[in-house]
# Entry
Amino acid sequence: MLGNGEIVGRLLLAAVLGSAIGFERERLAWAAGMRTHMLVAVGACLIMIVSAYGFSEVLSRPNIVLDPSRIAAQVVSGIGFLGAGTILLRGEVVKGLTTVIVLVILAGVKPFEERYRASIGQQGLRVIAERDAFSLPLLRDLAGPHAPRIRQFVARQRHEDDQDEITVAFAQLPNRKVEEIATRLRQQAGILSVDACHIA
# Structure
């Protein structure tokens, strides 16, 4: 059985970890802030301590069969309903709920994710062509096996100079592949300019 000092220490540690999550949420002005996460973390920690150590004396007696883990299983549903009910009672929308480990993942992985998206995100082309010189079927032919990556084809007529301005978006196509398609486009008759761009 844990001593009182160790129990208090674990509860305080849970409060500190919960406050770290709550601080991140308050920084983003999301519902369920620091106090809410501290209370939920302390409550979950207390229930787990009771589940693990609260029945040790009873279980040592003969002919007693208990499953203390059933109490710990209620942390997910019980604390979840308690927290959601408290927040929704105020009419706020809950989004982006995190745990400590998820908080570390979000902070640590985000720079790599942004770099990855920038390299093979939704890349695009802006094309200026003579009227009706560029079409979606032509783009598909030039894209070849990458044609399924075409996500957007928007053409706008430029009435002042009898030209078309076309925006093309590709989903998760590396920059070098987009540039290869752009090179083929520049070789087509009636294509005046082709510029690569990143489309959000």
